[in-house]
Amino acid sequence: MDYLNSYNQSINNFMSPLDNPPVMAFLKLFLIVYGSMIAPHLPDYILKWFNFVPFKIFVLFLIVWTSNHDPTVALLIAVGFTVSINVLSGKKAFEAFRGVNTLGV
């Protein structure tokens, strides 16, 4: 149990810059802009990260950890993550139809 307490303390120390109000305001603004404008137009090299399970687990861990400190930021991260996954799945479906020749030529 001591290992978990020390691990939690290490994570809290690493994420301590997020306790600064100007940093949190910038992060909230960035997440709002990301979810509404940037995520639908992400390049392929960034969307590839959303295919990796360890990256998804990291983002989910980040959402859970952040929800203990600031639920608003956790919701913004969750919305951005959901939008990114939705864009990725839509792009995969569109690419699947791209190779189909509908004219039979």
TrEMBL record:
<feature type="transmembrane region" description="Helical">
    <location>
        <begin position="49"/>
        <end position="66"/>
    </location>
</feature>
<keyword id="KW-1133">Transmembrane helix</keyword>
<protein>
    <submittedName>
        <fullName>Uncharacterized protein</fullName>
    </submittedName>
</protein>
<keyword id="KW-0812">Transmembrane</keyword>
<keyword id="KW-0472">Membrane</keyword>
<feature type="transmembrane region" description="Helical">
    <location>
        <begin position="23"/>
        <end position="42"/>
    </location>
</feature>
<feature type="transmembrane region" description="Helical">
    <location>
        <begin position="72"/>
        <end position="89"/>
    </location>
</feature>
